[in-house]
């Protein structure tokens, strides 16, 4: 059974990894970058401040850092040395000759579980529990999936690596959110949106349009993706 799962994981990886082009090589390399989404992170912090106030922001930003570090260390420092599952792109892996890699980027030696998957899903889970808005949660999940797919495209992770990282990240995000919620309440912070959280703008017809601060985060994330697509087409 274990051999069947490993073979299936390999076949799915090879199929997904085989779909590539010069243009998407550039796109996926940028998407996989850890600093690519910096603007979105800044707007996310702004959304927390606007919605919950500075006390909640301090606690939740701190706990977001904690959950990412926790997820990263569990996957990279604890579990990888135990399982020692070689990355598909590693030259010592028998399938490495069939793997499409970008700019000779092969990552480290071992890849199970995926730290990228753990980190992104830890952040996505924690923020989804904090804001509890389905549209924002859907965006965060799709963002995490996009980053995960880029790791398959680049040839550095099997789908199973990403699935395991997703589970670990979601658990870390939920745990640290509960700790952060307890700390926020103990400090007298706020976990319910403030009355001034909603923002108003006026359109040309004079009608008031109300939107939530997380809409800016969603917009910045989508804008980042569009910029990556346009920038990649310009340099290819």
Topology of this structure?
Elements: H1 2-17, H2 22-31, H3 38-52, H4 54-83, H5 115-131, H6 134-153, H7 159-186, E1 199-202, E2 208-211, H8 214-235
Antiparallel strand pairs: 1-2
- Using the alpha-carbon principal axes, give the shape: globular
Total E-strand runs: 2
Query: Mean pLDDT, rounded to whole units?
Result: 92
The sequence of SSEs as H and E is HHHHHHHEEH
Biggest sheet, strands in spatial order? 1-2
Distance between the termini: 44 Å
Oligomer: single chain
**Would you tell me the structural class of the helices and strands?**
mainly alpha
Q: Main beta sheet: strand number and arrangement?
A: 2 strands, antiparallel
Low-confidence stretches: none
Helix coverage percent: 55-70%
The helix count comes to 8
What is the strand content?
under 5%
What descriptors fit this protein?
236 residues, two-stranded antiparallel ribbon, 8 helices, globular
Describe this structure in words.
With 236 residues, this protein is mainly alpha-helical. The protein contains eight helices and two strands; from the N terminus they run H-H-H-H-H-H-H-E-E-H. Strands 1-2 form a two-stranded antiparallel sheet. A hairpin with a 5-residue loop joins strand 1 and strand 2. Helix 4 runs antiparallel to helix 7 and helix 5 packs antiparallel against helix 6. It is globular and about 60 Å long. The N and C termini lie far apart (44 Å). The relative contact order is 0.18. The mean pLDDT is 92.
Short synopsis of the structure:
The chain has 236 residues and is mainly α. The protein has 8 helices and 2 strands; from the N terminus they run H-H-H-H-H-H-H-E-E-H.
């Amino acid at each position: 059974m274990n051999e069947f799962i490993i073979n299936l994981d390999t076949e799915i990886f090879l199929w997904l990894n085989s779909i590539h082009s010069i243009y998407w090589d550039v796109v996926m390399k940028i998407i996989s970058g850890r600093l690519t989404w910096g603007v979105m992170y800044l707007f996310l912090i702004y959304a927390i401040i606007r919605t919950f106030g500075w006390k909640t922001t301090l606690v939740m930003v701190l706990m977001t850092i904690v959950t990412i570090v926790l997820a990263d260390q569990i996957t990279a420092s604890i579990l990888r040395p135990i399982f020692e599952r070689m990355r598909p792109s590693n030259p010592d892996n028998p399938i490495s000759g069939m793997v499409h890699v970008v700019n000779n980027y092969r990552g480290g030696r071992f890849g199970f579980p995926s730290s990228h998957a753990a980190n992104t899903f830890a952040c996505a889970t924690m923020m989804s529990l904090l804001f509890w808005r389905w549209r924002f949660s859907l965006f965060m999940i799709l963002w995490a999936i996009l980053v995960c797919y880029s790791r398959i495209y680049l040839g550095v992770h099997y789908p199973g690596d990403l699935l395991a990282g997703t589970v670990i990240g979601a658990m870390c995000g939920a745990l640290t959110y509960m700790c952060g919620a307890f700390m926020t309440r103990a400090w007298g912070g706020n976990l319910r949106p403030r009355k001034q959280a909603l923002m108003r703008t006026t359109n040309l017809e004079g009608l008031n349009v109300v939107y939530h601060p997380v809409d800016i985060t969603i917009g910045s994330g989508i804008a980042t993706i569009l910029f990556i697509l346009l920038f990649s087409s310009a340099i290819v």
